[in-house]
Amino acid sequence: MLDVRRMRVLSEVAARGSFSAAAEALSLTQSAVSQHVAALEREVGQALVERGTRPVELTEAGHALTRHATGIFARLDAAEQELGEIAGRRRGRLRFGSFPTALVTLAPPAFAHFRRRHPDVTLTVVDDHLQRLLPRLARGELDLALIYRHETLTTAGDFDCDVLLEDEFRVVLPARHRLTRRTRPLELAQLATEPWIGGAPDSAWYRIASHHCRAAGFTPEVAFTSDDYAAVQALVAAGLGVAVIPGLAVTHPLPGVEVRALATNAPVRQICAARPRDGYRGPAVTAMLESLSRAAQALSPDPPINRG
């Protein structure tokens, strides 16, 4: 079995870029750091560090080992925290992640409700995109995270997910656009000849929108790309195109745009609270889930459809 202490030394060398800096951070001698790394290399039977490079670089095996070590350290830290809370030696804590749109709409009222009920819990918040939140959740670096799901997206990882709300996409039009005169929900096909303002081709947002456009018989012609929903609205307000974006992103629309509903073929993503399946579901996690559920109910009175 690999020695966790030696793995921590290797991770520190990688982070600091030298044996001497790692030794100082760990309150060890440089010789001791070198011996730990050498012993770990003997354990795995491979070189982990490229000798003679400045700053120190890891081999492919070294990178692989430190990547796994990050998750191991996070799990050990969580175990110590859980045991400390059970024994009453540590204050509760909650490491929370969220994608940006939910952080400015769903999360604030949930945080306020949570803080009123649990002022003694240390809450830390990570603002990041979905593709980076999921690995952090899987490694145990987060206790709970707001994520979204759609059939076009892969959410790899062993998570428990509580569906909070269905976020239906909306059409964003320039204020005097011809389609603003229509009172009924719009069909995606009515936007087929319009210049689109949308996310980058590899973004989750674009994959969702383009999937539904293809089902409606066309591929959107994207004139401008941005993953910033405020920038998208500003470009639409300037009359440069139309956009189809999540409803949460237009909770507070910018001046100069009109927001319209889509008909039955509208893209919908599920907003979920996710946590590692083997993670500690302590009182703080349970309380935050309750607070998120209250906030989601205020945003969307209709109960979500749980699609698994």
Any idea of the CATH class of the largest domain? Alpha Beta
Backbone structural class: alpha/beta
Low-confidence stretches: none
Q: Describe the biggest sheet?
A: 7 strands, mixed
| Beta-strand content bin | 15-25%
- CATH topology category name of the largest domain: D-Maltodextrin-Binding Protein, domain 2
Domain HTH lysR-type: 2-59
Organism: Solirubrobacter ginsenosidimutans
Protein name: LysR family transcriptional regulator
Family: Belongs to the LysR transcriptional regulatory family.
Helix and strand topology:
Blueprint: H1 4-16, H2 19-26, H3 30-44, E1 49-50, E2 57-58, H4 60-87, E3 93-98, H5 100-103, H6 107-117, E4 122-127, H7 130-138, E5 144-149, E6 159-174, E7 195-198, H8 204-215, E8 221-225, H9 229-237, E9 243-246, E10 257-261, E11 268-276, H10 283-299
Parallel strand pairs: 3-4, 3-5, 7-8
Antiparallel strand pairs: 1-2, 5-11, 6-9, 6-10, 6-11
Helix pairs in contact: 1-2, 1-3, 1-4, 2-3, 6-10
